Records
---
Amino acid sequence: EEFAYLIGYSYGGGYVEKNKLGYPVSLSLACSNDYPEIKEKLKNICENLFDYKMSVRKGDGNLERLDICSVYLMQFLQENDLLKQKSGEISMPAILWNSPSSVQAAFLSGYFDADGYASGKKKGYVFNSICKSFLKDVQTLLLSNGVVSKIYSEQRVQENWNTIYSLCIVGKSSQESF
């Protein structure tokens, strides 16, 4: 479950750096300074599971970057199809579909902590992504665990950015389950 949380967080707030040959050499996780408990959780997971201490550096704005610069760990993630792809092309890790609900929930929790928020509207929960197919997979995982959601899109043509998709958990019962 801890590993699933780390992978989920990397899918939302992670960036993979590659060398000149295209091999991954590091994974950088963007962590807001507003949530120090999330930073500590990620550092502890990495230390407990891999006996690896993440390096910390200043990021853009009000955040820090936690870096995993282990070529072996990057290779492991890539070989097991757990390494995040480009944001517009991410897909749910295949191993997650056959994992217990607790592992799926941990992955979604990590992804939510990186790229989600609690909406002020009826205390809803929202996941964001520029990859609609990934959010459809998130929606399927949520539904298989009894949580109903709906996907909305927001065209951001004026900023010349990609369309952003928002998966909103709907209904009081689903929000309580989530």
---
Amino acid sequence: MTDTLEIGVLGYRFMGKAHANALARLPMFFPDAPSVNRRVLVGRDEAALADATAELGFDGYSTDWATALDEVDVFYNLGPNAIHREPSVAALEADTAVLCEKPLARTLDDAEAMRDAAARSDAVAGCAFNYRFVPAIQYAKALIEDGELGDIRQVRGRYLQDWLLDPDAPWSWRLSEDVAGSGALGDLGAHTIDLVRFLVGEHAGPITRLSGHLQTFVDERPDPDGGPGETREVTVDDAFTAQLAFENGAVGTIEASRFAAGHKNDHAVEIHGSEGSLAFSLERLNELEFLGPDDRGYQTVLVTDESDPYVDHWWPPGHVLGWEHTFVHENYEFLSAVADDGSFRPSFEDAYRVQQVLDAVERSHDDGAWVSLD
């Protein structure tokens, strides 16, 4: 592999901008990061793609991902869920490193094929669960690993947004089962499931069974490509809830909604143990609420000291970080693993385990019963 990693990115809108921004920030704030070159941007709309190529700092663009794979060392698959499998598997079969957006795939079968391709490949494969790389989440992980919470007893997770509250909000691919697989469940719930596994998986064990419920509130929405009054069907959930049972006897609840008025991007987890508790909300990204064994009440920990995870790379202590920085941290860890022939987590195996839970929630809803996980 060359000293400079040649990067190809499929997707140039929301996630494309987030990752392109992270790649641009790396040499400024992480001087030990691998050298990278934004080689090729991949998409379908050639005119929009050409504009995005200049805006996001890429050398060139391609409307054919297969051709683009021949030019790069690392492939970022940031497209809709339905196109995660084929390009990612092709890249891994060519031993090209892959970072794929979440959820890993549209279906469990696709996720299994991607996991198996990663296992056969010599290349690094990672899934972009960026919230693992929030300094406060890393701090929470360390507290749990150090036994500060004792035995894990209960977990609560939620991810609430309100961007679909208006019934006249236009239809998008995220509302199509054929493209997205699921709605709030996969789009938001996948993040929560991964955080739960990351934080307590080694202590509470895996989720052994669950009960899930899905709900769609608006069945059709205005077609942005249609004429006046034309609509398209919504075929995914707008909200979900699930009850969880863990191997060690702990219990959990998770929920997500894109109909939660007043919540723009509220991703929160609470973990209660035999000796203490902690709570985190993305809307207060630099803070962690912690109750230790000897505390009389929760303490608010401001995770912005130079000794906190990743913070020494940024601003003086007390100068807070934001959402975009999670992508810089994620890209730093992933690309460092690629350059060093190392390992990266969340891996495709981790993402497959998340997909198993997503699939189980859907099966539980369809069957109206608790579902066991292998």
---
Amino acid sequence: MAKKSFYGRGKLLLTGEYAVVRGAKAIAIPTGQGQRLTLSTGRGSDIKWKSKTADGKVWFDAKISLFDFSPLKTSDPEVAERLGSILEAAVRLNSDFLSTWKGIKVETELEFPREWGWGSSSSLVYGIAQWADVDPYDLYTATFGGSGYDIACAGSDEPILFKKVSDDMVDLRPIDMSEAVSNHLHFVYSGKKAQSSSALDYISENEMSPDWLDSVSELSQELSEAQSITTWLKGIESHNALLSEYLKEESPQAHFRDFSGAIKSLGAWGGDFYLAATPESPEYVQDYFQEKGFSHVLSYEQVAVSCQPQKAGQ
């Protein structure tokens, strides 16, 4: 086998957290950093898998049976079992996948820190779907579930307005993010982790009214077309109020009352990243959050605008 390479981008959900699963419109951006999956010929008739972090360190390795995708040897049984289930699901979608019983070496490498929650799972599923020649949404539905916005980001080179229309249909529309907006958006790593599974459990137990979902969609639509940061400041405030009502939690803004702008959580509340929007200078944002102990503050350009298309084989 000639060496092959597949690539999927990371993701950040700017609006529509929780609601996107129930069909509300949401704004999402693919990150400039993603995950690469590289294949080469291996010995024997097993899959030898190695996963590396952004700094090149191996965080997971395994020898996986091509017969039943069980781990013959692994550094992490739980991760190996999850990986085996993805490969098995891919075979169910394409019976020709992994049917030759020839040994394969697989190496994955993240470009962003694993703890950032930028889509290590979704970018992996996207890469495996390319390898298996199956629909990435079908593979994601069969393994992780969720709205699929992160799969949409994995294959996109620009911001998107995303809507889950049905279990087997999504609506994607590219967004031309105005610099009058993007130059004033900043991403702050919270240092905490939120579990997507917990968010999905909450959604399954708590209904969302059609009117409430429509309100979230209208906000996402408005912000996707916004030409000023003022619109985003007002939109984030309204968005926080809607989600605070649904989650019965205090808005993230309450923890930053002295910030000159608007702040919201990205994805499940209580973890990963905040979005900070402000008309103030980047220096103001850096100083404000560093004084509060947040060491990773990224501009929109650092996260998304500097994206360069990546193609298989590069």
---
Amino acid sequence: AMPTMRAAQVSRPRGPIELVERPVPEPGPGQVRIKVGACGICHSDMLTRDGLWPGVEFPRVPGHEVIGTIDAVGKGVPTRWAAGQRVGVGWHAGHCGYCDSCRRGDYFACQTGIQVTGISFDGGYADYMIAPATAVARVPEELSAIDAAPLMCAGLTTYNALRNSGARPGDLVAILGIGGLGHLGVQYAARMGFRTAAIARGRDKEPLARQLGAVHYIDSQSSDPAAELARLGGASAIIATVTSGPAMAAALGGLAPRGRLLVLGAAEEAIAVSPLALIMGRRAVEGWYSGTSIDAEDTLAFSAQCRVRSMNETYPLDRVAEAYDRMMSGAARFRVVLTM
């Protein structure tokens, strides 16, 4: 009999996430098989669940915050990857390598379509998954699978945005929103040497924000975040992790000259921007895309070195539907992680 595994799949747009038995897949050329130890549940998994990503095919297993161990290697995989290695797989799994964007090194903008874990192929809500070798990142021994899983997307996105923000140690940097991405963003910003300000609604997250490394806390309900940042000298960067365009717009006035608002939260409403504010201070609003497997590797290494940890709620794979609903509810503190 063929060995089987558990996999949590979606069979149609907006359909339930169902646990099924499937044959354990074999890696093809250029692919590795990973025995999954943990997989984070990310808000972007709704793109698979709800069938919102153009061309997503069903049934599909979601999950792009995967940590596990390589247990089989296909033909033509570079010798650096071998059975027994601890690895992670994130959102960006591959790109064509030959379009003009790829030739410029802008892999996020691959014109023939990037490969996305859990969308282009089955992801990590399963005991095993197949990944292209281009998607694989090394995982430091110090990080457990549960600790490392959310760093493959939430961690990677915030860390990568911060290190590419143009801010320098000692500069004021604001993290807008202290949720799944923001609670990691505050830790990264503080450990990178930025004067870190946390902005959130209400006073209840202040003790946590300070514990994570924020030196300033701004309650956007009782004060104007732009005015507060300006009073502190202006932010070199604002990392916007909220999913509200108006909340991003409300902080924009707090940018220092040459400051950048980096948009990480996939908000649906527009961000209203004053052209004059941009012109007079040469300020910018810029989107930030997660990163590739080497960026994930850098994120994990920095997190291990500087003791950045995600705060997680864990669920076993057989409670996947409940775990997904918990993430979507917004009540989770702060990331939801499936354990195999």
